Each structure stands twice: as structure tokens, then as C-alpha cells.
Amino acid sequence: MGSENPSPQNPSCKIMTFHPTLEEFQDFGKYIAYIESQGAHRAGLAKVIPPKEWKPRKSYDDIDSMVIPAPIQQVVTGQSGLFTQYNIQKKPMLVGDYRRLANSEKYCTPRHQDFDDLERKYWKNLTFVSPIYGADISGSLYDADVEEWNIGNLNTLLDMVEHQCGIIIEGVNTPYLYFGMWKTTFAWHTEDMDLYSINYLHFGEPKSWYAIPPEHGKRLERLAKGFFPGSSQGCDAFLRHKMTLISPSILKKYSIPFDRITQEAGEFMITFPYGYHAGFNHGFNCAESTNFATLRWIDYGKMATQCTCRKDTVKISMDVFVRVLQPERYDLWKQGKDNTVLDHMKPTALTSPELDAWNETKNALKAKMLRRANRKRSQPRRHKTQDQKSLVDAMAMDTSLDEVPEKEDQSRVPSLDEEDKPKVSESKEGECRPKVRNPKAKGERKKKQKLPLHELLPPLLLPQPYLPKNEKLQPSPP
């Protein structure tokens, strides 16, 4: 399996790049387990360049009419390598209009010699000209027949959330699209519940990434709390707000290990549990991403910090994962006595006996539901028995009597004008036909008794409206 690998277990925690063959590319979960066996997870971020013959979509010429429902303008304040980013929601716009805006003189990418030169201009001009980001758009650009590395159908452990709990979390176990322009930014953060993530750059200008090894994530948190004490006092997990920007020069100054890499169109980036990352777009582009999980993630999920100050925080119950996949630790975990120690260096296992058993049960249930659906389609419709026909006929005869509508409001006394109007009854075929009868004086009309629904049931008597003594019915006002 092809990779640019500094060493077998990557002790330097450098971002690694992998080149799978088409055959290796077929099984997503297996390839993730492989790159972790090479130490890719120790950097917190890895690049995967798919085989040249693989394409997720035949053409992107038809997406200008797509709607960006809630673009955000990113306003950045700060100085000296420490910044806070605020997002202001704008009106919806079409992708075509967004592309023209991104390429306009105001928002376009500045001239630069290389990526290093562009990076310097990014950090120098971060607080000027607030860019607009088309972020968090629910949907996918993959063609429906693409099976390999389909971001909308990765078939990983995270699917257990939907299968077992029936929960769909947009952008977490469904794909999101991101339309970017020069200087649009994603601030320092780890994924919700410290999950894995996958990001594919469909087309356009590159995207630069910074990553901190998971084994050094606590050092970044301590540094951020020191520089942003107000945010830290308001929320212990304030980095989950995705508002904090710390430049590479500050990280170097305080000896925080990190690495950087540039993602080009047609390339995947994989982030690993508790891997802090940040970055920016070089110009107009489109990316697609979602979260996923492996067996190794379960312990991270159990220990993930939560934002306590916002209602929209993503929180996934770990109960089903521990109960099904770590049954020997479930009771201790429920009692708060599961003293898990995270091992950031240990690669994930591809499977386990518990996971195999769950997959077997899931597949058996799918097959059972499919057989049941096929049986229903193949069975002829059953004819009604004679007794059922008689009952249906009696009910039809009953509903045809227009003198006493079946669902009449007895609490309201009808007006004389209403009584003299033609009434409409519904025929068997569902057609509404007017049924006209000659108006008669109220005293001349004979009260008809409603027929029973069945010959064995007693007749139904109509309740009479209550009128006080010496009071007569008055016509309703016009």
C-alpha cells in the first residue's frame, strides 16, 4: 500500500500522504485501519490521494443553480497572532452568484509567488475585508452510483447511531457541503464528540490545513485558556465554538508541536480523534465532509468534553456503543468507574467479535425486512368474505341517509335558512352530488329513525336539542 511515510510508527507525528490503488480503495474501513497501522493518526491529520481512475461525479457544470441557504460573513478581530472570529449570517444566494462574488476584485485571491507567500498574506490581512463562507450545506455532490469512499455512505461504526437509536445528525452522520473563497477560515477545533472526519475537495482552489498531534492537544488547550481567559471562564470547552485563531508563529514560540499541509482538488483529508486542526481556503472551491468512527474512537467518545453554554451542541449518547461493543466494561461505565486511559499511539482494530455479531444481526434484519417486503408485493389481494360484504353494504346504506349526517354537530341549533338549503352527500365513488328535496314546514316533517349499522344492533335514537319553556327556534341572523 503506497504511502510517504517518515517511519513505520511515525514518532515525529508528521502528516502523512497515502496513494491507495483502486483495489485498496474499495474498502474504506480497512484502509483507515491500514493508515493507522503506519502511524498516520499520530499527526491528527492525513492526506489520501485516490486512484486517478476514480471520480465521485461526472461533471460539476450543473451546480450554479444550487442554493447556499445561510452564507456567513467571517469578521475577525485581534492582533499579534491571536484572533477571534465572528460569523454573521447573510441572505441565501446561488452558487453561481457566490462564485462570481468570490472571483470579484474585492474578494479574489491576491497575487503570490507560492503557498508560503500566500500564507504570510493570510495572517497579515486576516482582519481586513471579511470574506463570505458558504458553510454547512446539507447535501452531497457524489453521483448516486459511486460506492467507494462515498461520504454519504461510509458504512462505519457511526451508523450504529442511526440503526440503533434512529438518530440523524446533519453534518455528523450525513454529508455537508462547503463553498469557500479566499481567506474563509475554519478555526482551531476537534470534531464533535472527538470523532474522525473526512473531507474531499471536489474542485477549485486549494485548502491549507494545520494540525496538532492528539498527544499534544492538552498543551494547545492550556495555551488557548491563557490567551483567552474570558472565553475560558464562560465555557470550559470554548474551542468547540470554532472562534479561536492562533497563528503558527505563536505555536512555535510556545513550543506547541504542529504540522501543515495543503489539500488540492481531488484529494481527501482525514482527521483523527482529538486531533486539533484549523485552516483556510486559497480561493473559490467546494468541499464535502462528514464524520465517522472506528472501534478506537469509543474511548474518545466517552471522554469527549462538551460545550456547556450553547443549546445546539452535538452530543451522542455512548450507551449503545459501550453496551454492544464493550460489554465487559458497561456496568463499570454506568457507575462512573470505567477508568479509561486514552492511548493516542495505538492504532484502531479493524473489527472485534462484538462488532462482527452486531453486523451479523444488522444484516440478518435487513434480509428479513427485504423478504417481508417482497412477500407483500407478490401476494394477491384477498377478496372480502360474504359477512364482510353484508356489513359494508349496511354501512353504505346507513351513510346514504341524508336526513341525519353521521358527524353532525348536535350542539348547534340549525337555522331555518340552512334547513331549506339543498344538502350535498358523497356518493360511493367519492363524487359529491347535490341532493335536493322539497322544503316543508318544520311541523310537517317526519322524523326518521336512523337504521342500525347491523341487524343485530339496536336502532340509534337521535338526541333532541334542549329548549327552555316558552322558547321557540329563531332563524339565524343573515
From TrEMBL:
Signal peptide positions on this chain: none
EC number(s) reported in the record: 1.14.11.66
Name the record gives this protein: [histone H3]-trimethyl-L-lysine(9) demethylase
Broad class of enzyme this protein falls into: oxidoreductase
GO MF term (any one): metal ion binding
Skewed-composition ranges (Basic and acidic residues): 420-434
PANTHER family linked: [HISTONE H3]-TRIMETHYL-L-LYSINE(9) DEMETHYLASE, LYSINE-SPECIFIC DEMETHYLASE
Phylogenetic placement of the source organism: Eukaryota, Metazoa, Chordata, Craniata, Vertebrata
Residue intervals of the JmjC domain: 143-309
Positions of region (Disordered): 371-390, 399-478
The family this protein is said to belong to: Belongs to the JHDM3 histone demethylase family.
Annotated keywords: Chromatin regulator, Iron, Metal-binding, Nucleus, Oxidoreductase, Transcription, Transcription regulation, Zinc
Residue spans of biased composition, Basic residues class: 371-384, 435-451
GO cellular component: chromatin; nucleus
The organism of origin for this protein: Micrurus spixii (Amazon coral snake)
Residue ranges constituting the JmjN domain according to the UniProt record: 15-57
Reaction(s) the record says it catalyses: N(6),N(6),N(6)-trimethyl-L-lysyl(9)-[histone H3] + 2 2-oxoglutarate + 2 O2 = N(6)-methyl-L-lysyl(9)-[histone H3] + 2 formaldehyde + 2 succinate + 2 CO2
Top-rank taxon, per record: Eukaryota
